[in-house]
Design a protein that fits this description.
Low-confidence stretches: none
Oligomer: single chain
Distance between the termini: 29 Å
Number of domains: 2
Order of helices and strands: HHHHHH
Mean pLDDT: 80
Radius of gyration: 17 Å
Number of strands: 0
Structural class: mainly alpha
Helix content: 55-70%
Shape: globular
């Protein structure tokens, strides 16, 4: 999964996970797979979907958060207060160097405890 996070944004990854869940659940409902097999293969199905899209140079659609599921307070805190990147952390593919640079520039006074 870490390799896919280098290629896709968080919202694209959520879409890949959603597709994998739907695909495996459909197999389960049709009686093609048992519950344990379904649960154990979701990760690999997600990886396969992502790699397949990459090989074919296909864009992975972004997952739009349903209005009834708001952004968590932890997510708001991390992206808005600590990293100060807002929705960019969800919508764009962060480079490792940008993330490291952002983490280094966080001042001690910006870190809050709960």
């Amino acid at each position: 999964m870490a390799d896919l996070l280098k290629l896709y944004s968080v919202e694209q990854m959520v879409n890949l996970i959603w597709q994998a869940l739907n695909f495996k659940y459909d197999e389960y409902l049709k009686g093609m797979r048992d519950k344990n097999h379904t649960a154990n293969t979701i990760k690999y199905t997600c990886l396969n979907f992502g790699e397949s899209k990459r090989r074919r140079n296909q864009k992975v659609q972004c997952f739009n958060r349903p209005a009834q599921i708001p952004q968590s307070e932890l997510s708001k805190y991390l992206f808005n207060d600590v990293l100060k990147i807002g929705d960019v952390g969800f919508r764009e593919i962060p480079s490792e160097m940008e993330l490291i640079k952002d983490l280094i520039t966080i001042k001690q006074g910006d870190i809050h405890t709960f």
